[in-house]
Amino acid sequence: MPLLGRGRSIASAVIRADRARETGDWAVAARLYRAALDHYPRNPPIWVQYGHALKESGEPAQAETGYRTALAQAPYCADTQVQLGHVLKLLGRHKEAEAAYLRAFAIDRGLADPLSELRGLGWSENDLLELRRQAEAERRVERSADPDPGEAYRPLLDYLREEFGQDAARRISGYFAIVDGLAGAEGSDSRRRRQLDELVRRMRRLAQSVDTPRPVQASVIIPVYDRVEYTIAAVISLLEHQCDTRYEIVIGNDRSSDETEAVFSALGGVVRCITHAENYGFIGNCNLSARAASGEYLVLLNNDTIVLDNWLDELLAPFGRFRNVGLVGSKLLNADGTLQEAGGIVWRDGSGWNFGRGQDPRRPEFNYVKEVDYASGAAIAVPKPVWDALGGFDERYAPAYFDDSDLAFALRARGLRTLYAPAAQIVHHEGISNGTDVETGIKAHQVTNRQKFVDKWHAVLSAEHGPNGHDAFLARDRSRFRKHILVIDHYIPQSDRDAGSRTIFAYVKMFVDTGLQVVFWPDNLHRDRDYAKALQDLGVEVLYDAQMTRPFGEWIAEHGRYIDYVLFSRAHISLNYIDSVIEHTRARRLYYGHDLHAARLEREYAMTSRQELLCDIEFWRDAELDIWKRADVVYYPAQGEVDAVRRQLPGKAARVLTPYIYSAREIAHGRARVEAGHDGPPSLLFVGGFRHRPNIDAAIWLVRDILPRVKAVMPEVSAVIAGSTPPAAVKGLAGPDVLVTDYVSDPMLERLYRTATVAVAPLRFGAGVKGKVVEAMRFGVPVVTTSAGAQGLPGAEDAVEIAPVSAEGFADAIVRLLRDPDLARRRALEGLDFVEREFGYAAAARRIAIDIPELAALADGPGLLRR
Question: What are the phi and psi torsion angles at 362 (to 5°)?
Answer without folding.
Answer: -85, -10
